[in-house]
Amino acid sequence: MTEILTIVVTYNGMKWIDRCLGSVRASVAPSDILVVDNGSSDGTRDWVREHFPEAKVSENKENLGFGAANNIGLRHALSHSYKYVYLLNQDAWVFPETFGTLVRAFEEDGTTGSSGLRKNTGKPVGILSPVQMEAGRDRMDAQFLKHCGKALDSTSEEIVRVPFVMAAHWMVSRECLEAVGGFSPAFPHYGEDLDFIHRAAYKGFAAAVVRTASAVHDRADRPRPKDYRMKLKVITARTAVTNPDTKPLPSLIGQSVILALQGVRHLSIIPWKGIGELWKSYGRLLRFREDSLGKGAFLY
Length: 300
Prior knowledge:
The protein is α/β, with parallel strands linked by helices. The protein has two domains: 4-217, Spore Coat Polysaccharide Biosynthesis Protein SpsA, Chain A (Alpha-Beta Complex), CATH 3.90.550.10; 226-291, no CATH class. The chain has helices at residues 17-25, 44-51, 66-79, 98-109, 116-121, 142-153, 174-180, 192-202, 226-242, 248-266, 270-280, 282-291; strands at 4-10, 31-37, 56-59, 84-88, 92-94, 125-133, 159-161, 169-173, 206-217. Strands 1, 2, 3, 4, 5, 6, 7, 8 and 9 form a nine-stranded mixed β-sheet that branches. Helix 9 runs parallel beside helix 11 (270-280) and helix 10 packs antiparallel against helix 11 (270-280). It is globular.
């Protein structure tokens, strides 16, 4: 049986789908493919069925968002006993050795706590990412560099623990999924990967980057306008409230102060509006935070 299930959430992804799924097909380490389509209108679903008949396709009538759509795939992975799940963005692709290198890193972790990986991360790894590159492969993806570059520069170890890495390329172990569950409904668009990493850490699993594995996230030509960046700061504040390793009320107050300062610094009203939204949603965020503590949260 194939040990890996690759989940690709699609939404009008014709620009990338051949490169994305073709890279999984070309992987040295074999992987089954599940495409979860979020109501594409550009022919993505029919194209996948015609050109990638080995892939299973799950159709949603509307765009459920990244987290909810991936949860469909994660439930499938658990019910079909896959050992590893690879979350792959539609605008991303892997190289023939990517999966195999990541699986070897997981296997080196073992269960005794004596391996180099566990020594480096301080806890068993649950999430591994390759080094995420721009399409030209001449430099790291800008956001990957922002979040992981400092950690990679601080050590020459092959496997490097990171506080956060984007879910455009995640290999997640079955043990981690069974304990942590799926993505929280508190974050339908963005923030779901940071929330998941917080919950994984709470359950005792580390996130890490494997320096000898690489893959592409093709988004360098898409701008990140100021309003978009400010909205992400508001979402990040919400993840601090749902983080089970923090006290929610102090986090709420602290993040409100941070948002106020960011509004002044960036001359934007969006963080200020985000303060009101954060307080208004506080009770709902607490409920999701409590729900997230259960085994296999949001998947059963």
